[in-house]
């Protein structure tokens, strides 16, 4: 079960990949929003803690593929087709939460990816970092947070750097082509 750090960084990575011609100066707010969307499935903790629902609710409907589809369709209905690229990127960031939990859960019940069609919980358990028993200490949370930062920050930075370099290269080629097509003619 990754912490919000990993989910937020993966959400930003997904959004950056979904906006290949963006720049950090222009896209920082969309990257931040992608982080929020990627963390938001864990808001089911508010239902568990605040409304005293059972812990079985966590990693349920809010982590499902259908929930990501509903969030994406709702954003598209509100923002319109002109924002399709952003909507799809943010929807993918939301979906990344359930998929990351699926990939990294070794202990625990897994994720209801196919809710409401199947109530079965799925887990692949590739790596089990940031998984805690029922109680956990501040030291364990700090250690897991540092591991997540060390793993995911370099990936985000690499994606942003590659995206920046590719975008600059494309812009340079476009400028060169447009300059070639507007050559003055001699009389």
Number of helices: 6
Find the count of extended strands (DSSP E, 2+ residues): 0
Q: Please tell me what the overall shape is.
A: globular
N-to-C series of helices and strands:
HHHHHH
What topology does this entry show?
Blueprint: H1 4-18, H2 24-39, H3 44-50, H4 65-79, H5 84-104, H6 138-181
Helix pairs in contact: 1-2, 1-5, 1-6, 2-5, 4-5
Structural notes for this entry:
This protein has 187 residues and is mostly helical. Helices cover 63% and strands 0% of the residues. It has one domain. Helix 1 packs antiparallel against helix 5, helix 2 crosses helix 5 (84-104) and helix 4 runs antiparallel to helix 5. The N and C termini lie far apart (72 Å). The mean pLDDT is 86.
Summary?
The chain has six helices and no strands. By secondary structure, it is mainly α.
Question: Tags for this entry?
Answer:
63% helix, mainly alpha, 187 residues, globular
């Amino acid at each position: 079960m990754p912490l919000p750090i990993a989910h937020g960084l993966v959400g930003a990575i997904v959004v950056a990949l979904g906006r290949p011609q963006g720049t950090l100066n222009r896209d920082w707010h969309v990257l931040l929003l992608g982080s929020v969307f990627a963390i938001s499935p864990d808001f089911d903790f508010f239902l568990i803690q605040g409304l005293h629902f059972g812990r079985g609710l966590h990693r349920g409907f809010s982590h499902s593929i259908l929930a990501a589809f509903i969030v994406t369709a709702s954003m598209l209905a509100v923002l319109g087709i002109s924002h399709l690229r952003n909507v799809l990127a943010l929807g993918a960031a939301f979906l990344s939460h359930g998929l990351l939990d699926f990939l990294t859960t070794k202990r625990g019940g897994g994720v209801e990816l196919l809710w409401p069609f199947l109530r079965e919980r799925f887990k692949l358990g590739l790596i089990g970092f940031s998984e805690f028993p029922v109680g956990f200490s501040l030291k364990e949370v700090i250690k897991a947070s540092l591991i997540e930062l060390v793993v995911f920050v370099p990936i985000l930075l690499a994606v942003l750097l590659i995206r920046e370099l590719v975008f600059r290269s494309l812009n340079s080629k476009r400028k060169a082509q447009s300059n070639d097509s507007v050559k003055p003619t001699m009389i």
